[in-house]
Design a protein that fits this description.
Elements lengths: L4 H10 L1 H19 L14 E7 H11 L3 E7 L13 H9 L2 E4 L6 H9 L7 E3 H4 L16 H16 L4 H14 L1 H14 L3 E4 L5 H7 L2 E2 L2 H8 L6 H12 L6 E4 L5 H13 L3 E4 L9 H18 L4
Parallel strand pairs: 1-2, 1-3, 3-4, 5-6, 5-7, 7-8
Helix pairs in contact: 2-4, 2-5, 3-7, 3-8, 7-8, 9-14, 12-13
C-alpha cells in the first residue's frame, strides 16, 4: 500500500480555514434543521430517509437502494470538481445537516465531508465511511471505488441502515439493492474472464487511481515510486523516469495506465513513447465521467483491458 498519510494531512491543512467557516454554519443549521440527534433514529409517519454522499457514484447506489422512500444528494456531482480539494459551501452544509444517512469515502480523500459530519454532531450510526467498510486505514490508497468488492459491501450496508430507519420497507430496500447489484453483472463477469488471463503480468501506471481493480485482476504494478510522485504533485526523479521509459520502450510491461484527468509533461511524454513503441495505453479517470453510470464507467475500463489482452499486449 502507498503511504497516503502525509498527502492527506497536506490537503487538510490547505483547506482548513475554508472548511472551518462552513463548519460554523453547519453547527447552526444542524441545530435548526435536526434538533437533538438520537443514536438510532426511526422514520415514522411517512418521513423519508435523507441521504448525503460526498461522491456521485456513491449517490447513484444510495438512490437505487432507497428508491421512492427517500432522497439522495451528492455534493460532488461533476467530473470537473476535484473531490480532495473541494471547498464546501453553505448548501453542502445544509445537505449534511438534513441527512440521516451520510456516505463518505474516508482515507483523507474527502476530509471536508468528515468535518461537516463532526460539526453537526452526527451519530456514528448515521455515517458510512466506505474506506473503513472495506477494512482500509489512513495511509492506504483512497481510490477504493475501483475495488471490485466495494459496491456489494456498500449496497449491503445501505440496505442495513435504511432498514433500521424504516423497517416497514426493509424488504423493498433489499429487493432494490439486489436489483442494482444485478445490473453490475456484466462487470463482474468480465472481471473473472480477465483475471484468468492476467497471470501476474507487469504493468506501469501514471498514478495509482485504478490500482485496486488492476491488482485484483492479478497484474503486478512495477513503478511505485513514479506513480506516487505524480499522485502527490511532485516531480518524479530522473531515475524513476528512466525506469518507466525503459519498461515501455523495451516492452517489459503489458500496458501503461494513464489517468487522463491529471496529465503533466512527464506523463504526456510517456504516453507518446508508448504510442511509438506500440505499448498499449489504458486510459482511466479518477472521477465519474459525464453521462456515465458506475456500471458503464467500470465496464469501459475492463473492455479496454479485454482488447489489450486479445491483441497480446505490448509488441
Amino acid at each position: 500500500m502507498r503511504d497516503w498519510t502525509e498527502w492527506g494531512m497536506r490537503k487538510r491543512q490547505l483547506h482548513f480555514l475554508t472548511v472551518s467557516a462552513v463548519v460554523l454554519t453547519v453547527i447552526f443549521l444542524g441545530a435548526v434543521l435536526t434538533g437533538c440527534q438520537q443514536a438510532a433514529p426511526t422514520v415514522t409517519n411517512g418521513k423519508k430517509i435523507h441521504v448525503a454522499t460526498s461522491l456521485d457514484f456513491y449517490g447513484e447506489a444510495a438512490k437505487a437502494v432507497v428508491g421512492p422512500y427517500g432522497d439522495v444528494t451528492s455534493i460532488i456531482n461533476s467530473p470537473s470538481v476535484d473531490p480532495d480539494s473541494y471547498e464546501p459551501d453553505t448548501q453542502s452544509a445544509k445537505t449534511v445537516a438534513k441527512a440521516n444517512v451520510i456516505v463518505q469515502n474516508g482515507l483523507g480523500y474527502d476530509s471536508w465531508m468528515n468535518r461537516l459530519v463532526k460539526a453537526n454532531d452526527k451519530p456514528e450510526d448515521d455515517v458510512i465511511t466506505v474506506g473503513s467498510l472495506l477494512g482500509h486505514h489512513t495511509g492506504d490508497n483512497p481510490h477504493i471505488w475501483y475495488a471490485p468488492e466495494m459496491m456489494p459491501k456498500l449496497v449491503n450496508q445501505l440496505v442495513k441502515q435504511y432498514s433500521q430507519l424504516d423497517p416497514q420497507h426493509a424488504a423493498a430496500f433489499r429487493r432494490q439493492g439486489n436489483a442494482y447489484l444485478a445490473k453490475l453483472t456484466p462487470v463482474t463477469t468480465l472481471q473473472k474472464s480477465l483475471r484468468a488471463k492476467a497471470a501476474n503480468q507487469r504493468i506501469a501506471t501514471s498514478e495509482p487511481v485504478a490500482n485496486y481493480a488492476l491488482t485484483a485482476l492479478g497484474y503486478q504494478i512495477v513503478d511505485p515510486h513514479y506513480e506516487k510522485a505524480i499522485e502527490e504533485g511532485a516531480d518524479p526523479t530522473p531515475a524513476d523516469i528512466k525506469q518507466v521509459r525503459g519498461l515501455i520502450s523495451t516492452h517489459q510491461i503489458q500496458f501503461f495506465v494513464n489517468n487522463t484527468q491529471n496529465t503533466g509533461a512527464s506523463v504526456t511524454q510517456l504516453v507518446q513513447l508508448a504510442n511509438r513503441s506500440k505499448t498499449p495505453v489504458l486510459r482511466v479517470t479518477e472521477t465519474l465521467p459525464k453521462g456515465k453510470t458506475y456500471e458503464t464507467w467500470m465496464l469501459g475500463m475492463y473492455r479496454q483491458i479485454q482488447k489489450i489482452q486479445q491483441q497480446g499486449g505490448a509488441h
